[in-house]
Write a structure and sequence with these properties.
By secondary structure, the chain is mainly β. The chain has one helix at about 5-15; strands at about 1-5, 30, 55, 70, 75, 85-95, 105-115, 120-125, 130.
């Protein structure tokens, strides 16, 4: 699990400088061919109908002591119109637009997923866990 640079700065400023965090108006999920690091690197190519998926209402409010959110609805990417690179990681962004927004969080998938023509990559309910630990 990786927290993006902008999110790290906002969290530190919130706790140590009493600065409010501005929540993004959009939360979008991306697929990556390698560890996105702190910047969201290695996002799949913007080709063959690949696009980030808006999932603003997919994650319930965090509660308890676990520090984990899980998706409460299925997350489905667009149907591929050609081959995509194998996805090994996911990312969360403040924008659904490819190449835009702040990278918030990223993590490895338990198994890679590859889309070819006509395939839809899906994450069933509870399959995406966002953890702060």
């Amino acid at each position: 699990m990786t927290i993006g640079n902008t999110a790290e700065v906002e969290i530190l400023n919130c706790y140590f400088n009493a600065t409010n965090i501005t929540a993004p108006t959009v939360i979008a999920m991306s697929l990556h061919s390698a560890d996105p690091g702190d910047t969201g690197a290695s996002e799949l190519a913007n080709a063959n109908a690949y696009a980030r998926v808006v999932c603003t209402t997919s994650f319930p409010t965090a509660s308890g002591t676990a520090g984990t959110l899980s998706n409460d609805v299925e997350i489905a990417f667009p149907e591929a119109s050609g081959a995509w690179s194998a996805a090994t990681h996911v990312g969360i962004w403040s924008s659904a637009t490819y190449g835009a927004g702040n990278f918030i969080w990223g993590g490895a998938m338990t198994a890679s997923k590859t889309a070819t023509t006509g395939v839809v990559i899906r994450f069933p309910v509870g399959d995406v866990d966002i953890t702060l630990d």
